[in-house]
Every structure is written in structure tokens, then in C-alpha cells.
Design brief:
Elements (H helix, E strand, L loop, with lengths): L1 H16 L6 E9 L10 E4 L5 E3 L5 E7 L3 E7 L2 E8 L4 E5 L4 H5 L1 E2 L5 E2 L8 E5 H5 L17 E4 L11 E4 L11 E4 L2 E2 L10 E7 L2 H4 L10 E6 L8 E13 L8 H14 L8 H10 L12 H5 L5 E13 L2 E13 L6 E14 L4 E17 L3 H8 L24 H7 L1 E22 L2 E7 L2 E11 L2 E4 L5 E5 L4 E24 L2 E24 L13 E27 L3 E12 L8 E12 L13 E15 L11 E8 L2 E8 L10 E14 L3 E18 L12 E22 L2 E18 L9 E2 L8 E4 L2 E4 L3 H5 L13 E3 L14 E5 L4 E11 L2 E11 L2 E4 L48 E3 L2 E12 L2 H4 L6 E9 L3 E3 L11 E2 L7 E11 L1
Parallel strand pairs: 1-7, 13-16, 46-51
Antiparallel strand pairs: 1-4, 2-3, 2-5, 5-6, 8-9, 10-15, 11-12, 13-14, 15-16, 17-18, 17-52, 18-19, 19-20, 20-21, 21-22, 22-23, 22-24, 23-27, 24-27, 25-26, 27-28, 28-29, 29-30, 30-31, 31-32, 32-35, 33-34, 35-36, 36-37, 37-38, 38-44, 39-40, 40-43, 41-42, 44-45, 45-48, 46-47, 48-49, 48-50, 49-52
């Protein structure tokens, strides 16, 4: 031990004695603008490190630097970043010049660049740092809490199925409300990108910023820019991590003894004899879990959740170039194992972004991406596994003592389902994306661009349901489920083409600045689909179609296509970068509508006033750095309605008549050739200001109305056909949002805090009086997908209270749920159902903290929603539903001695307490520690000794804890259902980031 300590001490002594390791000196300096005015808050960093400081109010700074030659990097909002090599002098003076590029530019992918000074629309920017910090498989899930007005919900943690559902400023349609995603100018899927590839994301939220995308912009637009090479020379970067997952929430189920005792209580409450004799219960207790064949006490969760939960990500980038050619080639590998066996997700990504400059007039960018994704889950689906895992009582056998699968419940054994019940394998490969853009500048003020971006994708889905034998303890077969193994194979091939041409003219006439964009594009999509199935596989280890029986084989297939042709334009004008005006328009023609309705026009108008540029504001320039008022109006469209719903469609199939197979054709649904776009009109007013170049605030109020929403109105049943789709509905979303950013540097400590909050009120204004029923409904005067059911008045406390109340369902006794008689007819039935909750969150918020001290860095993300409702039903929360078991929380049930119970009296097969009602509604608002990361960058003197420019080690935790009032054991982000979803997971990982 002493020898080891001595060696360690000598090693440290030698290390610190190495030349240049700990030898430092102090450098002081002053930073001013181009006119010699001191600049406070300028970040001063030692190059390739996180060590630095910031200038004080007079522009002065002091910093310890290595004794050898050191390069300092000076950066400040609105000014060009400057690098200065420090010589022997202990003092330096630096003058920064305004950076018009960084101050005035915002990316509008595909249609050129728009200056920030001219930005009059509502746009939120998300940096790559806040995305790549998250250990997620799907990039969409990394957007949670990062931008105001953007709500992202992640209802599942299943590998490959854990994507985030994105909603921008509420829900404005009864069909698909997903935003349009544009990746480097081309429509795409955010989840097809490795998060490490993303350089930045811009979210276009109002009509002024989104109308340039016309008929697909009604739900907002997400613009994604991927990383490109920016420096000369060759550079290599590796970033990777390994980690593990565990469920955030699982219901706490009762053991065998408690199940039997509580079942007896339920039987007695329903007028029957106890099901389990007391002698049997005592035998269970005496056995103590030894003879599990005779006295099974199965912990179904423990037996099912045996997946490793391991995950790892590796991302390698090679970038370089110089002169006329630059490239960035990246390779990404992501592998995520599930917490149940036979579940996982793997993604391989190869991307090359290349820029070629032939001359001052002509340049070319060519991006190529190859993608392979594979998702696996048990053949009967993860939802089936989780459903039975939390449904089967503990006194049913899971695994016999001889290792065979126990009977479970009539052959339903989720342990066997997850391990040997077959496999669902969803594969997406190859997926090839080419994006090439040619830029030509015939004169200084004019740029012509042509983009060609084809994409080919092949998708396959294999679903193999394997037959499973379950056994009695004596070795005899109890059940075989299903009776025959089945395999269904689906193959889909698609080709997407995007051809776009634009012309951009930019000219200044004195103080008047103009920028005009004109463009045209054509997109088309073709898809071919084929499905085949067989059953009865004698060798389930080889689940391919030819090994199955041909007796019951089936096949089907179809083809589809659509096209979109567009013309668009934009005019930007500003006077002295003070008074701002922008006009956008797009004219879209879609093959999805009939002649006469194919084209739609989507204009927008926005204006802004940079008050901070007025002469009367100059005395406040150092205090109020920026102040801008803006407003916008515009129309947006939604053509995501499926292919050709206006046509008369004939269904063709085969039917059996008189023991013969006959080919048939039928018209099932009425056609409506008059349907057209869903149109959204939006008004937005906003203010942006910055104080002391440290505190930035952006705030918006908006009103959004969607008209002509496609809906199936009622028609007379005598027609004999299903109702056609019509333009009938009206939905409004009104709200406000605020984003605040504060940046500060105190000596070596740097931090920034970002906070955002948004509010939206969603209302269905008009559905032509059509009211449909179900658990979630959209009704006039309420939000989309509201919860529909009976209003609970608590629990009955006495027979007298029951006698004096309206007649309810079945046999009602004290301890049962009491419902409000809404219409006063003395009978509780479906006529008493009302809106009892809203699934659309009223408030969404997020907070981000980034901090750095010398070599240490720290990132925290907190996100959540407020004023939202959730609803669990059936086995998810109702005791003994359909003969199932109960949870520990159900022990707080009503008795004459426990009248203030959380749950009704225990019963078996009593309908009254199982009705949809507000009794089962819970508050679904929450605040979650979404992500926390701690990193350390090794001193440059150490990293350079192994040839690296930077070495950073980090540890990350995700979903570590949540504050909520939802049902115990269930994740609040999956608020409506029966509790059978794959739960959200906590993630712990350690990683390495190294640059060469």
C-alpha cells in the first residue's frame, strides 16, 4: 500500500513539474468598439479551452494564462469574433468591429438567408449544444423545453418508439397536426438525423415566417441546418457515450397473499362467498415462497423486465478542406437495448456535406446521406407485454420450478411473450438522400440557385407471432397460444423528388435596402406497398415465408403517388435598418384536390420598428442594446389529408358466397369533389429587447384561426354509404409566449440562463352541430380531444344517500362512485356525460442553465406543462377490472371505517365504478428534470501530449425526477390510456468528446 502511494505521489510530482504545465502569468487588457467606446461583458477565452473571463463595465479584464505563447478569443454579441496571440507584453488592447453577419442573419433553409435585423416574424432558435447534450435516439425528443410555443410530449420510452410529438402553438386541426420539417432546404424527418449532425434549428411559429411554405405550414415549420466544414485544414472529432436505462415509473402490484385477501373482500362486497379459503392463504404464508409450483407468488415485473437497458452512441466526424473545396464526413452509430428482452433500436448514419467553389460566380453544395434503422420488439407488441404484466395476479404461475413457462392466465404469459413469443422487426434501409444546390451569381446583386434533391427509401416490417407452450407443474401442456405461428411481411418502397429554382436580388439605394426572392418548386412522391403472410411454421427458428404453410397464405399490395407544384416569393425592405417590412406569398397546387380546387394562395405581411435605432434612444444605447416592435398577419394551409379523398373509390376484394370465392367490387364511401385546403389565419404582435447586452427578452401574443377543417358530417343512413369528408370545422388557438435569456461572466465563471413559458387556449368553434361520443371528443366550445364522461360527486356514504339520488348503474352500495344527474331526469345514463377534462396543456415551460468554470461545464434542462388533465381507465387504474389484480395504492379503498378513501369499495364485475367519469381524471401538469450534464475539459497541456486539441469527459442523467400529482406508478407524459405503454426511462451515461 505504501509503495503504491509513493509511486502515485512521484507520478503527480513529475507531472506537475513538466515544463509549461503549471507555469502561468497574468495578462490584463481593455476591449473597445470601433469608436473606442469600452465594451462590457465581452467574453475572453483561452483558445480551445473553456478557461476565460469577461470584461467589466469599463471594458477591462484580467486573466491567468500559460507562460508560453497563448491565443485569446474575444467574442461579443453583434461583433466579429477576434483571435489575438499574446506576446511578452503583460497588457493588450483589442478593438472589435461590428459583425453584420451574426447580428443580421437568420437561416431560412432553401430560400436564402434573412437578416436578423429584418426579422419581423416569430422565430425561435435552438442551438446544437442543447440538442446534442441529450442521450436520445430520436432527435425530436431533444426539443422538449427548449423554445417558447413549442410543446413536445414523449409518451413512451420504447427503443425506436420514443419520438417526441411536436405541437407548435396548440392544435389547429382534427387531422395531422405535425409541423413541416425542412432539413437543409428539403422536406424530411427530424428523427432520421443523428442529433450530433444538427448545427441549429429554427422554429417558424407565425404566418409571417412560415407562409413561404404555404400549404404545409399551418402547423408551423421546423428548419434544421446540419453541420458543415468552416475551417481550413483537417480535423477529426469523436463523441460517444455508454449508459443504461431504467423505468421512471411502474405501478406497485400486490403479492399473492394480498391479492387473495383483497379478492375475498371484493367477493363479499358483491354478495358472494370468499373465493380463496383462509387455509390456502395460511399455507401460502407458511410456505414462504419455497414451493412455487404449489403456491406461486410471481413478481411479473421482475420476471419480465430482464432486458439490459444498455445504450451507446458513437459519432465520428472528419472535416477539412481549404481554398475551393470543403467537406464534412460523419459516421454515426446508435444502439439502444430495451428493458424487456427482444426490444431495441439501432441506427447507422453516413453523411457527407461538401461545398465546392468553382469561382466567385459559381459554387456547388452536394450533401449525401445513407441511413439504416432497425427497431425490434416482441411479436405480440410491447403494449401486450406490459398489459399482461400488470394484469395477471401474482398467484398465477409464471415459471415452473423445472424452468418451463407456467400457465400464466389461460396461456397468457408475458414472460414467454417477451422472450420467445416471436419478433416484430421494423427495418428502414437503405434510405438514400441526395441534396445538391447550384448557385450562380451573374452580377453582384443577383444569385440564381437550382436544387435537386431526390430521396429513396425502403421499409420492411416483419411480424412473427410464435406459438408458445405453457405447462402445468407436472410437465403436461396447459395451453398453446396461438394455435399456429404466423408471419406477416410488409415491404414499402418510395421515391421522393424535389426540384427547386430561386432567384435572389439584393440592392441598397442609399438608406433603402431591398431584397427580393422569387422561386418555383415541384415535389412528387411515389410509393409501392406489398404484404404477404403465412402461418403454421414447424421451425419457428427460421421465420421466413417459404417455411410456413401455403394453405392459408395471403397477399395484398397497392401503389400511391402525389405531387405538389409551387410558386413563391418574398420582398424585404428596410430603411436605415430601422423601419422593416416583409411580404411573403406562395401559390401551391396539389394533386390531392380536384380540378378547380387544386391551387391555393397563401400571403403574409409583417412589419417592425427598431426603436433602439432612433436618435432619441442613443443615450440609452449601452443600457437598452436592442428594442424592436413587430407585427404580422398571414394565411397558411394544410393539405395533409391523405391521397385523393375527393375521388370515388371502389374497394375490390374477394368474398365467400355459397361456398365459392367470388371477386367483388363495392363503393363504400361517398366522394366529395369540392373539398379544398384547411386554411389558417394568424395574427401576431411581438417585442424583442436586450438590456446591457446580457438580458434578452422576446414576447409574443397571437391569435390563430383554422377554417374549413376536414370533417365527416352526418348523412342519412338511407344512402347506404359512409359519410364523405367536408370542409366544415373551425378551431381557434389564442395565447402568448415569453423567452428570456441572461448571460453573465464573473472572472472564470460563465453562465447563461434561458427560460421560456407559453400559454395557449384551444377551442373548437364550429363542427356544424355534430357531437360524437367516446372517451376523447372534439365538441364546440371546448378544446380538441377533450375527455368525455360522467361528473363524479365523490363516493356514496350511506344507503339513504343512494335512495335520495338518481338511479345509477347496476347494484349500487355505499362506497360506490356518485354521479351528477346533469339533465335532472332521475336516471344516470349517457345523456349525463359532459366534458370533464382537457388533454391539451394550457401552459408549457422550460428552463436551461449552462455554466462553465475553468475546465468544468454544467448543463441542466427542466421542462414541464401546466393545467392539463390525464385519464387512466380499465386495468390501468380500476381495481379488479375484468377479473385482473390490484395495486398497492388500491388498499386505500372505501369501508365504513375509511370513508375518505382514494378508491371505491372493492367489487368484482360491478359496472357502476367502471364508467368513464371525472373520478378517474387526474392533474397531468408536471415539472421534470429532463437532463443534467457535468463535463470536464482536460488542460490543453495534457491533451496536446497525445496529439489532441481537446479532450472532454462528461456524465449525463435524463428524466431523473418528476414533480407531479398523477396516478402513482404511471408516467404523466402518457396521460390517457389503460397504462400498457412502455414507460419513460431514466438514462445514466458517461461520455468522451475528443478533437484532433
Amino acid at each position: 500500500m505504501k509503495k503504491t502511494m509513493k509511486i502515485s505521489f512521484m507520478f503527480l510530482l513529475c507531472l506537475f513539474a513538466l515544463p509549461g504545465f503549471a507555469q502561468e502569468r497574468i495578462i490584463t487588457g481593455n476591449v473597445t468598439d470601433e469608436e473606442g467606446v469600452p465594451l462590457p461583458g465581452v467574453a475572453v477565452l483561452i483558445k480551445s479551452t473553456s478557461t476565460g473571463t469577461a470584461t467589466d463595465f469599463d471594458g477591462n479584464f484580467s486573466l491567468k494564462i500559460p507562460e508560453n505563447d497563448t491565443t485569446l478569443v474575444f467574442s461579443f454579441l453583434g461583433y466579429t469574433k477576434q483571435e489575438v496571440t499574446v506576446g511578452e507584453s503583460p497588457e493588450i488592447t483589442v478593438s472589435l468591429t461590428p459583425d453584420l453577419t451574426s447580428l443580421n442573419e437568420v437561416v431560412v433553409v432553401g430560400f436564402g438567408k434573412q437578416k436578423k435585423v429584418n426579422l419581423t416574424g416569430s422565430v425561435s432558435e435552438i442551438s446544437d449544444q442543447n440538442i446534442s447534450n441529450r442521450p436520445v435516439g430520436q432527435a425530436s425528443a431533444a426539443l422538449q423545453g427548449l423554445a417558447p410555443g413549442v410543446t413536445v410530449s414523449q409518451s413512451s420510452g420504447r427503443p425506436g418508439g420514443d419520438a417526441g410529438t411536436i405541437r407548435i402553438r396548440g392544435v389547429g386541426t382534427l387531422s395531422s397536426a405535425n409541423p413541416l420539417v425542412i432539413i437543409d432546404g428539403v422536406e424530411g424527418d427530424l428523427n432520421n438525423l443523428d442529433p450530433n449532425m444538427i448545427a441549429s434549428i429554427s422554429v417558424l411559429k407565425d404566418a409571417a415566417s412560415a407562409s413561404i411554405y404555404g400549404s404545409r405550414a399551418a402547423n408551423g415549420v421546423i428548419l434544421v441546418t446540419t453541420k458543415r466544414s468552416e475551417d481550413d485544414g483537417l480535423a477529426i472529432n469523436y463523441k460517444g457515450y455508454v449508459g443504461w436505462q431504467e423505468p421512471t415509473n411502474l405501478p406497485d402490484m400486490v403479492d399473492a397473499v394480498d391479492h387473495m385477501r383483497l379478492t375475498n373482500v371484493a367477493y363479499v362486497n358483491t354478495g358472494r362467498e370468499p373465493l380463496y379459503p383462509e387455509e390456502l392463504i395460511q399455507n401460502y404464508i407458511a410456505d414462504g415462497g419455497v414451493d412455487t409450483d404449489t403456491y406461486p407468488d410471481t413478481d411479473w415485473q421482475k420476471e419480465v423486465l430482464t432486458g439490459s437497458g444498455l445504450m451507446n452512441s458513437h459519432f465520428l466526424t472528419l472535416s477539412g478542406g481549404g481554398g475551393k473545396v470543403r467537406f464534412m464526413t460523419s459516421f454515426g452509430y446508435f444502439d439502444q437495448k430495451g428493458i424487456i428482452e427482444n426490444s431495441g433500436f439501432t441506427r447507422l448514419t453516413l453523411r457527407n456535406n461538401m461545398d465546392i467553389k468553382f469561382s466567385e460566380k459559381f459554387d456547388l453544395s452536394i450533401d449525401l446521406q445513407l441511413l439504416s434503422k432497425v427497431t425490434e420488439e416482441p411479436g405480440r407488441s410491447t403494449s401486450s407485454v406490459f398489459h399482461w404484466m400488470n394484469r395477471i395476479p401474482a398467484n398465477q404461475p409464471g415459471i415452473n420450478l423445472d424452468g418451463s413457462y407456467g400457465e400464466g392466465w389461460n396461456g397468457a404469459n408475458p414472460i414467454a411473450f417477451s422472450k420467445e413469443g416471436g419478433l416484430r422487426k421494423n427495418s428502414s434501409y437503405p434510405r438514400i438522400q441526395l441534396n445538391s444546390t447550384f448557385n450562380y451569381r451573374p452580377v453582384n446583386d443577383l444569385e440564381l440557385s437550382l436544387t435537386i434533391a431526390p430521396r429513396f427509401a425502403e421499409y420492411s416490417n416483419d411480424e412473427f407471432y410464435g406459438s408458445i407452450d405453457t405447462y402445468h407443474p407436472d410437465g403436461t401442456v396447459a395451453n398453446t397460444s396461438p394455435a399456429r405461428s404466423t408471419l406477416t411481411r410488409e415491404v414499402s418502397r418510395s421515391l421522393y423528388n424535389n426540384l427547386r429554382a430561386t432567384a435572389t436580388y439584393e440592392k441598397a439605394f442609399g438608406d433603402h435596402n431591398f431584397k427580393v426572392l422569387l422561386g418555383a418548386s415541384r415535389e412528387d412522391y411515389q410509393n409501392k406497398y406489398l404484404s404477404a403472410s403465412r402461418d403454421d411454421f414447424p421451425l419457428p427458428e427460421y421465420p421466413v415465408l417459404d417455411t410456413g404453410s401455403a394453405e392459408n397464405q395471403q397477399n395484398s399490395g397497392n401503389e400511391s403517388e402525389w405531387a405538389l407544384q409551387s410558386f413563391f416569393g418574398r420582398i424585404n425592405y428596410d430603411y436605415k435598418q430601422k423601419y422593416l417590412l416583409e411580404i411573403n406569398s406562395r401559390y401551391d397546387g396539389s394533386s390531392r384536390f380536384s380540378k378547380g380546387n387544386k391551387y391555393g394562395f397563401f400571403p403574409s405581411l409583417s412589419a417592425g420598428w427598431r426603436i433602439s435605432e432612433e436618435s432619441f434612444m442613443k443615450p440609452l444605447k449601452n443600457t437598452l442594446t436592442e428594442l424592436k416592435l413587430r407585427g404580422s398577419w398571414g394565411l397558411l394551409g394544410n393539405q395533409d389529408i391523405g391521397n385523393y379523398p375527393f375521388t370515388t373509390s371502389i374497394a375490390i376484394g374477394t368474398y365467400s358466397f355459397n361456398k365459392q370465392i367470388v371477386n367483388m367490387a363495392a363503393l363504400n364511401t361517398m366522394a366529395n369533389s369540392e373539398i379544398s385546403w384547411e386554411t389558417t389565419e394568424m395574427i401576431d404582435v411581438g417585442i424583442d429587447f436586450t438590456l446591457f447586452s446580457k438580458l434578452s427578452v422576446t414576447a409574443d401574443y397571437y391569435s390563430r384561426e383554422t377554417r374549413d377543417i376536414l370533417y365527416d358530417l352526418n348523412i342519412p343512413l338511407t344512402i347506404g354509404l359512409a359519410a364523405p369528408t367536408q370542409n366544415a370545422g373551425v378551431v381557434t388557438n389564442k395565447g402568448w409566449e415569453v423567452g428570456v435569456t441572461y448571460r453573465e461572466a464573473i472572472d472564470d465563471f460563465h453562465f447563461d440562463i434561458n427560460f421560456n413559458i407559453s400559454d395557449v387556449t384551444n377551442r373548437v368553434v364550429d363542427l356544424r352541430g355534430v357531437n360524437r361520443t367516446g372517451l376523447t371528443v372534439s365538441r364546440e366550445g371546448h378544446s380538441i380531444n377533450s375527455i368525455w364522461g360522467l361528473e363524479s360527486l365523490g363516493l356514496f356514504q350511506s344507503e339513504e344517500e343512494i335512495e335520495n339520488h338518481a338511479t345509477q348503474f347496476g347494484n349500487v352500495a355505499p362506497g360506490d362512485i356518485k354521479y351528477r344527474d346533469q339533465n335532472g331526469d332521475g336516471i344516470i345514463n349517457d345523456d349525463d356525460n359532459v366534458i370533464i377534462g382537457s388533454t391539451i396543456p394550457r401552459y408549457t415551460f422550460g428552463a436551461i442553465l449552462n455554466a462553465a468554470y475553468k475546465g468544468f461545464d454544467f448543463n441542466v434542462v427542466i421542462q414541464g406543462v401546466g393545467k392539463a388533465d390525464g385519464y387512466l381507465y380499465q386495468q390501468g387504474i380500476m381495481p379488479f377490472f375484468n377479473g385482473g389484480t390490484v395495486q398497492e395504492q388500491h388498499k386505500d379503498y372505501w369501508t365504513p371505517e375509511n370513508t375518505d378513501a382514494a378508491f371505491p369499495r372493492l367489487t368484482i364485475s360491478e359496472a357502476n365504478n367502471e364508467k368513464n367519469s371525472s373520478f378517474w381524471v387526474k392533474d397531468a401538469s408536471y415539472a421534470r428534470l429532463k437532463n443534467i450534464q457535468i463535463g470536464y475539459t482536460l488542460p490543453r497541456q495534457i491533451s496536446t501530449r497525445i496529439g489532441a486539441n481537446k479532450i472532454r469527459l462528461y456524465a449525463t442523467g435524463q428524466n431523473l425526477f418528476t414533480i407531479d400529482n398523477f396516478w402513482k406508478g404511471y408516467d404523466v407524459e402518457a396521460p390517457v390510456g389503460r397504462g400498457d405503454v412502455y414507460p419513460q426511462v431514466k438514462v445514466y451515461n458517461i461520455g468522451l468528446d475528443i478533437n484532433f
